[in-house]
Design a protein that fits this description.
With 152 residues, the protein is mainly alpha-helical. Helices cover 68% and strands 0% of the residues.
């Protein structure tokens, strides 16, 4: 049997490619739907991750008013600020337990930065709508192939 994370990321890559080709929308980065699909049964983690992506976007967008940020510099700064938000959130939320003793956490460390990059490139509504739709589709495929249970 295949490991769940690589399978989810692989399906997410296919779904992201299809979204780009069919609708011209990126789903928040090529690997992001696969990671979020595995966490859709933990909506607080998904919300926290999206909030970290939005905060990253806001910080870098504000910084760009004072510093010249284009191209690779902007991309690296998005990833770095997203990493910092993920790290700080894990540190701050460490003692807080969510439902059924689950630790609240941002999903991954670079996922917020990848989300922020696409929020910046194609817009907030477009990115969030395609991201959540693609993640749900990946989760559905995982359920259909029997790799993930319907209920947590």
């Amino acid at each position: 049997m295949l490991e769940l994370l690589p399978l989810s990321v692989g399906i997410g890559l296919v779904v992201s490619l299809l979204f780009t080709e069919m609708f011209g929308l990126a789903a928040g980065g090529m690997i992001v739907p696969g990671y979020l699909a595995l966490s859709l049964n933990r909506p607080l983690d998904v919300a926290l991750t999206i909030a970290a992506g939005l905060a990253t976007f806001a910080v870098v967008h504000t910084l760009s008013s004072f510093v010249i940020l284009y191209g690779r510099r902007r991309t690296v700064l998005m990833i770095l600020v997203g990493f910092l938000f993920a790290t700080l959130t894990r540190w701050a939320m460490g003692p807080l337990a969510g439902p059924v003793g689950h630790q609240l956490a941002v999903i991954g460390f670079i996922i917020p930065g990848l989300i922020a990059i696409w929020l910046d490139r194609q817009g907030v509504v477009e990115t969030l709508a395609s991201l959540l739709t693609a993640s749900t589709l990946v989760r559905l495929v995982l359920i259909v192939v029997g790799s993930v249970e319907l209920a947590p």
